[in-house]
Amino acid sequence: MEEYTHKGPVDCNKPINVAKLKGKTAIVTGGANGLGEAYVRALVAAGVEVCIGDPDIERGSKLEQELSGIKFIRCDVTKWSDQVYLFRQAVLFSSTGFISHVIANAGIHRQDEVFSYSGDDQEPEEPDLSVIDVNIRGTLYTAKLAAHYFIRQNGTHASQNQKDSCLVLIGSGAAFLDCPRGPQYSASKWAMRGIMHSLRRTTHFYGSRVNIISPW
């Protein structure tokens, strides 16, 4: 793995050299719609083989038919067995048998019952914490599986022979700015920062990196 030297902020106006991505394999959770779909399309355009994990069968299957070099796997990220299957299938799908990039994009945002008020004459009801389940539990499952495969591929002793691999976490501006009426979503995106800050201290041992993208 090549040594990385920090050179300051990235200039987004300059073209990005994606030549090194060609022929590699990536997993994108929540890749059938929205930003996840955009990531998939950009990776495919760069010559990357992409395995999509998403619960939306209709949209995922459509993308699989439309784009070459992708495989769709129905996946509920809150289910450990679904994600285990996703990673296994990605290895089988890969022409190299090597997973280089994992984008933990799956996430939801909905009306937050933690914030809602039941009423003066009502007892408080147990809130739906599905945002936490998908955004945090799902991402932790993805991060663990990514680390498992990266370590199995590269070992645990840093060397120049290790192949680069990367886990990308998808955060949000909600982890930097106040997000009224959405405590679960804000908490889940702050969690992405915490996961990144923790993992970045050890990923280099197995030739890997961890980054976070926070759309505003």
Main attributes of the structure:
about 220 residues, Rossmann fold, 5 helices, oxidoreductase activity, Sc_DH/Rdtase_CS, oxidoreductase, alpha/beta, NADP, single chain
Describe this structure in a few short sentences.
The protein has 216 residues and is of the alpha/beta class. It has helices at residues 34-45, 57-66, 80-93, 130-154, 183-199, and strands at residues 25-29, 49-54, 70-74, 101-104, 165-170, 208-213.
How would you describe this structure to a colleague?
Helix 2 links the parallel strand 2 and strand 3. A 6-stranded parallel β-sheet has the order 3-2-1-4-5-6, with helices on both faces. Helix 3 runs parallel beside helix 4 and helix 4 packs parallel to helix 5. The protein has 216 residues and is of the alpha/beta class. The protein is globular and about 65 Å long. The protein is built from 5 helices and 6 strands, in the order βαβαβαβαβαβ. It has one domain: 3-Layer(aba) Sandwich (Rossmann fold), CATH 3.40.50.720. GO terms for molecular function: oxidoreductase activity.
How much β-strand is present in the residues? 5-15%
Query: If classified by CATH, what would the architecture be?
Result: 3-Layer(aba) Sandwich
User: What is the CATH domain class?
Assistant: Alpha Beta
Low-confidence stretches: none
**Number of contiguous helices:** 5
Q: CATH homologous superfamily name?
A: NAD(P)-binding Rossmann-like Domain
Structural class: alpha/beta
Strand arrangement in the largest pleated sheet: 3-2-1-4-5-6
- Intertermini distance: 31 Å
Q: State the order of secondary-structure elements, H for helix, E for strand.
A: EHEHEHEHEHE
